[in-house]
Amino acid sequence: MSQRFLRNSPIATALYLKYLRAIQPDGPGEFDGILDEDVYSWIVGLFSPIFKRLAPDPFPSFDPDAIRGGLATPLLSEYLFPDTFGCRLDAEDEEFIPRHTDNHGGLVPSRTWLDDGVLDELEQWARFFDPSDIEVYFSNPEHALDRMPTLVKVRLDGVGQPTTCFFKSFGSGITGGPLNRELDVYRNIHTSGLKEDTMVGRLVGVVHENKHDSTLGLLLRYIDHRGTLYDAVQGNPPGQLRHKWAAQIEKAVHELHRIGSVWGDAKPENVLVDRDDNAWITDFEGGYTYGWVDPGVAGTVEGDLQGLQRIIRFIFDGPQGDIERVP
């Protein structure tokens, strides 16, 4: 969409500019009473005939009934490299005109070109898997066509039963701050031989497409969780569980520090509670959340210890003062 394609249409242009304000990525999600959802519905309505005409037939492996019956298994590669089409919205004499412009589209693939040095270092300790060798898992097969998968299955040794992993896609871009930091933490966890009774997220492998030599995401150990620590504490658990969680989180943080890493964004939402009531700390990208870690100490051991102290207080006493739930 661009204002230069709106010709002799001042009313349509004014509406377009309002809609543009409503969908600003860093905005509040509305403008002048117009919600971002309203804009998306309007766009879909305009382009619906074109979408229906261009939409390719789904892969047979996406059939919900076939998935449910064990007759089909979608592959991660089928999700990451879809057909794309270019469309454009014009206006002429106050009439909006949706157009199909090309069969290439402007969708940026979900891949990251890592620096050769980063890739070489990764290959020293991490396993690489091609997306065509990774199966997608849906607990509800009806979601096979409308959601990007996060649960996948991969045969870690190339044979045998597949292991369920959490797929964390990189999105577009190049290596940088949060990604480098996250990989550094996972490397330290792996090379230090951190014991399994330390409840921290772990890297299982890297999804790398050999054809274009591009990296697509991380395979993380799947934590079969029932919610975050924030939700679990809100459920008023017994004191025994509260003590267990506090001890597990404290041990995990201190073990990270022992191997030369820091957690970073310490907060209850970055702690997952699994089905056996174990508390796992996750998310090593860094940053901070207001009320849990002060900006001046974010990304440091001191910041981790501050966040840990506040999390433990939260476990036993619930939310305090201006510490609010922030995703």
TrEMBL record:
<dbReference type="InterPro" id="IPR011009">
    <property type="entry name" value="Kinase-like_dom_sf"/>
</dbReference>
<protein>
    <recommendedName>
        <fullName>Protein kinase domain-containing protein</fullName>
    </recommendedName>
</protein>
<dbReference type="GO" id="GO:0004672">
    <property type="term" value="F:protein kinase activity"/>
</dbReference>
<dbReference type="InterPro" id="IPR000719">
    <property type="entry name" value="Prot_kinase_dom"/>
</dbReference>
<dbReference type="GO" id="GO:0005524">
    <property type="term" value="F:ATP binding"/>
</dbReference>
<feature type="domain" description="Protein kinase">
    <location>
        <begin position="74"/>
        <end position="327"/>
    </location>
</feature>
